[in-house]
Amino acid sequence: QVELPRPRQRRVFAVANQKGGVGKTTTTVNIGVALALSGLNVLVIDLDPQGNASTALGIDRTSGTPSSYDVLIGELSAAEAIQTCPDAPRLGCIPATIDLAGAEIELVGMEERETRLRQAIDAIPAEYDYVLIDCPPSLGLLTVNAMTATDEVLIPIQCEYYALEGLGQLLTNIGLVQQHLNPTLNVSTILLTMYDARTKLADQVAHEVRSHFGDKVLRATIPRSVKVSEAPGFGQSVLTYDPGSRGAMSYLDAAKEIAERGTREIV
Ligand code: ADP
Ligand code: MG
């Protein structure tokens, strides 16, 4: 396994797209593991009440486990809620428990409701090079918290029909967060997922996304692959479930590109 370069300063990503099923969780998990297996210290924060990222990483998320909910409401510090992933000792995870399902509504009545996660992340131990936040499929307060806490948004786009539907709304919301809450927020990275080379459609979507977003789009694309979809059922990333598979290789390539970009100046 190659070592990837450490960023000059910690990079925090919100992995977001209000469409469900586009590969947010799969991307968070596999990029997280890829970076961690390459010598970097990574923290995944599961901000989706479904808790799929926690499950895929083999992390306990039974009710009562210290979780992202406790961190958001200020009950625990981020450090107190971190568990270590069995797959990768350099990978920590703050899981989502069922409590998070009510947070979207509870937060409405709270002070500093948009900046709670940012405050928590500011206090994360210095050893973490990357923080990846898996957002729920909505543009509500949880996603707003993620976008307020990060500098970079990573948008996974599924190479399927309607791939670009809703993207305009996502970009508008990112613009609003930029204006009102977080001026340094930036869509730094777009990843094409579930790419099926046999279909013309996948090529068309990829071409359209690349012509619109230019070099924000990673060169690596993630193929549609059964191994990728099987791995979470074993509490594993595809990198440990089947290291030689195309899915594993493509997530490693994507992680490498992300890490190499991180050593450049981000404008
Ligand atoms: P989201 O978090 O955006 O809702 P997920 O990452 O959970 O999306 O992916 C949705 C479904 O598609 C899951 O069942 C997942 O296992 C599957 N999936 C994701 N990426 C791939 C891929 N590259 N190939 C095959 N199945 C995939
Ligand atoms: Mg998800």
Automatic annotation (TrEMBL):
It holds the Pfam family AAA_31. Residues 11-186 form the AAA domain. Signal peptide: none annotated. It comes from the Bacteria. May play a role in septum formation. Belongs to the ParA family. This is AAA family ATPase. It comes from Nakamurella leprariae. The lineage of its organism: Bacteria, Bacillati, Actinomycetota, Actinomycetes, Nakamurellales.
